[in-house]
Amino acid sequence: MCNKKPKNKIAIVAGGTGGHVFPALCIADRLALEGIDVLFVTDRRGDRYLGSFGGRKIVQNIDTSTRIKLYGSLVLYFIRSIICLLRNRVDCVIGFGGYPSAPFVLAAQVLRIKTIIHEQNALLGRANRLLSILARKILISFPDTKHLKVSERNIITGNPTRFEKTYIKSFPKRNTKMFTILIIGGSQGARVFSEVIPDSICELAKEYCLNIIEQCKSSDIDAIREKYDAIGIDYVVAPFFEDIGRLYAEADLVISRAGASSIFEIIGFQKPAILIPFSRSVNGDQMANAQFLANEGAAIIIEERGLNRGTLTASVKKIITDHDQRERLSQRLGQLKISEATANVIEVVMKELAGAPGFEPGK
């Protein structure tokens, strides 16, 4: 007679943005290596990021066209989530935020299945605020996360990223003769990335030898290339980069939005950065993320509403000419780094599965 113990089953639930899905994928992949049966739950937006995921997945079709349809979809998926959890006999659910995660994690809590939530941003999102009431553990990326009540359930783990094993050492800078600027976050097509930043780069190129790597919306590529071709600058422009880890390493300066994944990649690679928080981000989470780095002397913020060619050009010029400032920013980022964020999350999960108390922050 076979007495082999069945695999633990964990459901990982993430809203459809890359900021939610990428850290969730880091955990899903590591849990699979630990022999855990992983079920990944996201929405249609998140499904596009799951090409490398080899486990089972559920893609929710949540209708956000009107508020009534959104609420109706959430109620429907709450009922479906209860059925799914019972059918799959899930042992634990880990929620990574975003409203699509709410019905599944809440269903688990109603069924008294262990739930853990992870917050990527410097302020607790609306879904996680609701789910934190009954969660066994609340894992946070930033110290002093806003809207989070002090509790022994709160654990600082950091935010899992794709490059934890390859920061710095595996990506030596190849081009040391040019000042390389990596511009990311322009795929949403905001005017600041399609017009203001390229105009500023063209102005700077009159004085400095620049190499530009720029992410932008597909419809903006031709216009940006035309500007850069006119001044003879070295550049690469694309809507998406597969080798983003190497590009971070090549950069002397990063100009970026302030999503949690970008923030922790900038910290990991210790790259001086000018952050332009998305002014319409939900709850102002991007500004909170950027402000954390700025308050620690680890980044420069330029608010979108105050950004023009003159302000950006002046800020970039100061970083280009002030080597000591670049060193200070890089060193301060290194002091903020939380090593092995993925391993920290996995440790909490495994202890919850074993029924042991979670580890204490900093140990």
Describe the structure in your own words.
It is a single chain. With 363 residues, the chain is an alpha/beta fold. It has 2 domains: 9-161 and 339-354, Rossmann fold; 179-336, 3-Layer(aba) Sandwich (Rossmann fold), CATH 3.40.50. Helices cover 42% and strands 17% of the residues. The chain contains 13 helices and 13 strands. Strands 3-2-1-4-5-6-7 form a 7-stranded parallel β-sheet, sandwiched between helices. Helix 6 (191-204) packs across helix 11 (309-321). 44% of the residues are buried.
Q: Which regions contain 5 or more consecutive residues with pLDDT less than 50? A: 358-363
Task: Determine the fraction of residues in helical runs and give it as a percent range.
Answer: 40-55%
What CATH architecture of the largest domain would you give?
A: 3-Layer(aba) Sandwich
The number of helical elements comes to 13
Share in β-strands: 15-25%
Structural class: alpha/beta
- Report the C-alpha radius of gyration, rounded: 22 Å
